[in-house]
Design brief:
Strand content: 25-35%
CATH topology of the largest domain: Rossmann fold
Radius of gyration: 23 Å
CATH architecture of the largest domain: 3-Layer(aba) Sandwich
CATH class of the largest domain: Alpha Beta
Number of domains: 2
Order of helices and strands: EHEEEHEHEHEHEEHHEEEEEEH
Helix content: 25-40%
Shape: elongated
Oligomer: single chain
Largest sheet: 7 strands, mixed
Structural class: alpha/beta
Number of helices: 8
CATH superfamily of the largest domain: Formyl transferase, N-terminal domain
Number of strands: 15
Length: 316
């Protein structure tokens, strides 16, 4: 089976490696995003997919726009049997979708039609899901709306962060893509249309998604910390300065019948350490803090350095 592979981040790497190593497939070309400036020095940096393609001496194509006439000619001249796309980063136009006889196959990190969109792993964790999965699907012009080929369910660990879950999903996704390709080629799969009435969405993350609302419960805030661990992180303000925070729901129960009277976001000292008052009569046990422009420090170091006054709060 002659394949063009399109992908960019680390999430796509295990599948690319699997396809390059499998004698059932010939990877005719690897398409990835152009090298982009990254880091403080803003040096041009290759994508993880490009690095793997270079190691394998695979043909590499990095169009600035996949919608260009040049890109159309590139795909038309290659005449692949199928294109495999994983987190490429650009929307594929209809005229490219029609070139491979077997179409385009996408690996999506959710059990579609749940969590269509750019950030399914982060939003599943933020929303407190305990189960997720992977879907291979035929790409169509919509946003993750194509018919389903195969799915694999998996449990989300109660303390698992988005980067940890992404690494696990990437590894599990590679054999799922291979199996889907082989079954598609043998006509052993009947693509199943998605039920759009059951769809939910996982929009692209913005920095503002990381801002903590201390009126939420400690569990909800902990889910946000885990879901946004890669970027932008969970943050608040302290004495007018932005600060990122890490913590987990307090293990010490609230005295039955005794409501927490302090305002949400108030820092308190308890037998468990440093805690933050949250909504729903809950508390977050603070583990670490990073004030903007400074290094990350433990909660105890933060309290000792800040010399907290009474009723000081995050979020102000």
């Amino acid at each position: 089976m002659r394949i063009v592979f399109c992908g960019t981040p680390e999430f796509a790497v295990p599948t690319l490696r699997e396809l390059l190593a499998n004698p059932e497939f010939v990877v005719e070309a690897v398409v990835t995003q152009p090298d982009r400036p990254r880091g403080r020095g803003q040096r041009a940096s290759a994508s993880p997919v490009r690095e793997v393609a270079a190691e394998a001496n695979a043909r590499l194509y990095q169009p600035e726009s996949i919608k260009s006439e040049e890109a159309r000619e590139f795909f038309a001249n290659l005449k692949p049997d199928i294109a495999v796309i994983i987190a490429y980063g650009q929307i594929i136009p209809r005229r490219l979708l029609e070139i491979p006889p077997l179409g385009w196959m996408n690996l999506h990190a959710s059990l579609l039609p749940k969590y269509r969109g750019a950030a399914p792993i982060a939003w599943a964790i933020i929303n407190g899901e305990r189960q997720s999965g992977l879907t291979t699907m035929r790409l169509d012009p919509g946003l993750d709306t194509g018919p389903i080929l195969m799915q694999r369910e998996l449990e989300i660990g109660s303390d698992e962060t988005a980067p940890e879950l992404a690494r696990r999903m990437a590894g599990l996704g590679a054999p799922l893509v291979v199996e889907s390709l082989l079954k598609l080629d043998r006509k052993e799969i009947a693509p199943i249309p998605q039920d759009s009435t059951q769809a939910s969405y996982a929009p692209i993350l913005t920095k503002e998604h990381g801002r903590i609302d201390w009126s939420q419960t400690a569990g909800e805030i902990y889910n946000r910390i885990r879901g946004l661990a890669r970027w932008p992180g969970a943050f608040t303000t302290f004495r007018g300065r932005l600060c990122h925070v890490w913590g987990r729901p307090s293990a010490l129960p609230t005295t039955p019948g005794c409501a927490i009277t302090s305002e949400a976001g108030t820092l308190t000292l308890s037998d468990a350490g440093i805690e933050v008052v949250c909504g729903g009569n809950t508390r977050l046990q603070l583990e670490a803090v990073q004030i903007e422009g400074r290094k990350r420090i433990s909660a105890r170091e933060f309290v000792n350095g800040a010399r907290l006054g009474s009723s000081e709060r995050f979020g102000v």
